[in-house]
Amino acid sequence: MAAGWYRITVTLLLLCGSWEKVTARQETELPAVMENALENETAATDAASDDDENWQQLEDFMRHKIQLNTADEATLHSLGMLTDIQVQEFLTYRRLLGDLVSIYELQAVPGFEPDVIRQLLSYVKVGNDLMPHYNMHDYLHKGGHTVLLRYGRQLEKSRGYQGTATAAPAYQGSPDKVLLRYRYSFPRYISWGITMEKDAGEPWVGFPKQYGFDYYSAHLFVRNAGWLKTVALGDYTVNLGQGLLQWQAHAYGKGAAAMQIKREGDVLRPHTSAGENNFFRGAAATWEQRAWQATAFVSLRRLDGTLAPANDQEEASATALQRSGYHRTLAELSRKGAVQQWSGGGCIRYQRHRWQLGANVVSHRLDPALQRELKPYSQFDFTGAQLTGASVDYAAYWKNVHLFGEVAASDNGKPAIVQGALASVAPMVDVAMVYRYYDKAYQSFYTSSFGDGSRTVNEQGWYTGVSMLLSNRWKIEGYVDFFRFPWLKYRADAPSGGHDFSMQAVYTPNKRKRLSLRITNATHAENRKVPGNALNVLKDVTSTHIRLQGEWTYSRSWQFRARGEYSSYAADTGRKTGWMAYLEAAWHPRACPLVLNARLARFGTADYNTRIYAYERSVLYDNAVSMLYGDGWQYYLNAKWKISRHLSCWIRMHQVLYSGQQTIGTGQEMIPGDRKTFFQLQLLRSW
Q1: Full 3-state SS string of 502-545
Q2: 71: domain range?
Q3: Dist. CA 371–CA 391, nearest whole Å
Q4: 31 confidence band (pLDDT: 50, 70, 90)
Q5: Whole-Å CA distances, 167 to 160, 176, 399, 459
Q6: Which residues of 395-413 are buried (b: 16+ CB within 10 A; e: fewer)?
Q7: Residue 682 in 3-state DSSP?
Q8: Residue partners of 613: CB distance under 8 A and separation at least 6
């Protein structure tokens, strides 16, 4: 045994020495603000987002760094790390004092604390470069090609894969999850590629509308081609104003970053992820002439939907649209692509140095028409074949105050309004405020505006956030949000309201250590059964989370992270609690093309209401967030091996062990036993 371990050790050392020239560079990691946003989004939807476009963009910026002396406002916002106040402070600094001489001159820009600068260092540079002028040959040859193949599988078979003597398995395919993506990207100029995905349980062939992979996506995206600012063919996203009318890209909600309240981004973006819902398929273009900018788009897609049986007296109709993206069972396969959606619209924007104004219109047509079965809380939801909406948005700067907003209306005349302000009230103090009013009958597709609910409807509220940089070591930020729902909503059979509060303190004694404490508290009303009463009554429920996290960079090869979190859920029936603690380590030796990271977690929660979410490090571009409840242990191990300059391999093993459980999950996803194991293998070829 000792001789075996000796030979393994010697072999590893020799490999490390022989591969010294291809030592793995620091792998792209999501900034803390994006990790927190993914946790919050997963908590709201119970599903981690498949949208990895922001992550791909950061990887592009790591290879082709942003030139700070020529970067415009849109490019700086595309980093996803800077607030609007920070972007404006930087542009003002550069305009008044000229080009930066060194990257470390960012320390002199108001609002750029050391933690922000450290995050930016991997993606930006400073030099004397002029704005480059590229021709078509440069577009086609100066970018980078990538081919990504990802395989994943849950090792335990769930009920959906297990047939009986009299019935076939419910899932028509294998438990394998496969993603294949090719992309060519020359950041800020051109991108094209194709994405193919098969989810676990989906068949490869043998069924109508199944041709190998279940999902295909392709795009061609060109920027800065003369007076054409953007041209998009294939799959793309459209993002307008503050998301009241149209927003398909990823957007921040309430979270630890109290100042991230404004929707920012290009109107058109390529759709390159495996997400099967929030995108258009067709053509779009943006024209730019001096201060004027105009965008037009058209799309034809097939959506998943449940069709009602047609008869001689009535036309065919859809009773519901499905957004899960799964096509595993015969029922799910029958709903695939059942509804055709035509979409079109555009926007006109006029922009000056300190203000901008935009007008937007979007129209959708469904075939067959949507005639959903309405419930009391959803009786104002859209039904029919045609939906059109329009909006006006604006943004203006006055001294240290930034105002923005949007006013929208659907074709039934019902409005949605959001108005916000960002202000630097002192050298180290920023304030954010948002008011929103979303009518109970406002109707729209593909929206993502600021709010407490997941939809832009039936909500009024006022949000106030504060960020204070007490010193180079201490930062405190938090928010309070009051909201009400004027009409019924899911699990609330009467008008209701609530409030939530969050506070985070971050202590950074040096660039190697970081300690944070976060407290969140949210109260809202839910239905409760009362003995002897046929109707539900509303009772307040309060959810509280307290999180303490520490990060320590011991050396260039070793990093550690530890987190402890407490949760509680208080209702009229009493209080229930939960907790979670984990220790995480990452090792990437300088002389070896190997990166390892591992986590061991222990958790114990009373029930689903005290569940805890935790972002996980996974293979590149994988948005992994765990939802932990019950009692048990969790661990995972990731390994990345840079086989050559152009080829990298990831292997990941993730397992959760529950104490005293005979089964895990429900329905077709239920598995026997007390453990759940997931394996991933990923290859990335880049040149």
Answers
A1: EEEEEEEEECCEEEEEEEEEEEEEEEECCCCCCCCEEEEEEEEE
A2: 24-131
A3: 26
A4: confident
A5: 11, 22, 71, 47
A6: bebeebebbbbbbbbbeee
A7: strand
A8: 39, 42, 43, 625, 626, 627, 628
Amino acid residing at 15? L
**Which of 30, 26, 8, 148 is closest to 80 using CA atoms?**
30
> What is the token pair recorded at 45?
């939807």
Residues 649-669 have a mean pLDDT of 94
Task: Give the Cα-Cα-Cα angle 609, 614, 619 (nearest 5 degrees).
Answer: 140
With 0-12 CB in 10 A as exposed, 13-18 as middle and 19+ as buried, what is 573?
exposed
**What confidence score (pLDDT) does residue 504 get?**
96
> Residue 11's pLDDT is what?
39
The radius of gyration of the chain from alpha carbons, rounded to an integer in Å, stands at 26
- Which residues are 346's β-sheet partners? 296, 361
Q: Tokens 């498949």 label which residue?
A: 50
| pLDDT surpassing 50 at residue 5 | no
What separation in angstroms does the CA of 212 have from each of 206, 208, 338, 498?
A: 9, 11, 19, 48
Q: Which two tokens stand for residue 144?
A: 């980078």
CB 591 within 8 A of CB 23: yes
DSSP label at residue 213: B
Answer yes or no: is 74 within a domain: yes
Helix (H) or strand (E) holding 170, with range, is none
Torsion of CA 599, 604, 605, 611, to 10 degrees: 0
The candidate with the shortest Cα–Cα distance to 157, out of 670, 682, 687, is 670
State mean pLDDT over 25-32.
64
9 confidence band (pLDDT: 50, 70, 90): very low
pLDDT-based confidence at residue 135 (cuts at 50, 70, 90)? confident
The two most distant CA atoms of the chain are separated, in Å, by 82
- How many domains does the chain divide into? 1
Question: Mean pLDDT across the chain, nearest whole number?
Answer: 90
Q: How far apart are CA 652 and CA 309, in angstroms?
A: 46
pLDDT score of 33: 76
CA-based nearest residue to 316, from 363, 387, 366 = 366
pLDDT at 331: 93
Give CA–CA dist 257/85, Å, rounded.
Answer: 13
pLDDT in tens, 549-590: 999 999 989 999 999 999 999 998 899 999 999 999 999 888
Q: Are 184 and 143 in contact (CB under 8 A)?
A: yes
Q: Which amino acid is at 282?
A: G
Q: Strands 474-485, 215-225: parallel, antiparallel or unpaired by DSSP?
A: unpaired
Does 110 reside within a domain? yes
Classify strands 292-308 and 280-289 as parallel, antiparallel or unpaired: antiparallel
Tell me, letter by letter, the H, E, C secondary structure of 310-362: CCCCCCCEEEEEECCCCCCCHHHHHHCCCEEEEEEEEEEEEECCCEEEEEEEE
Q: Position of tokens 């980093």?
A: 79
Asked if residue 253 is part of any domain, the answer here is no
Q: How does DSSP assign 586-599, residue by residue? A: EE--TTSSEEEEEE
At residue 492, the pLDDT reads 92
Strands 66-67 and 124-125: parallel
Q: Is 220 helix (H, G, I), strand (E, B) or coil?
A: strand
Cα 537 to Cα 571: distance, rounded to the nearest angstrom? 13
pLDDT confidence band for 530 (50 / 70 / 90): confident
**Residue 551, pLDDT score:** 95
pLDDT digits (tens, 9 = 90+) for 262-271: 998 899 999 9
The answer to whether residue 262 is domain-embedded is no
DSSP symbol at 100: -
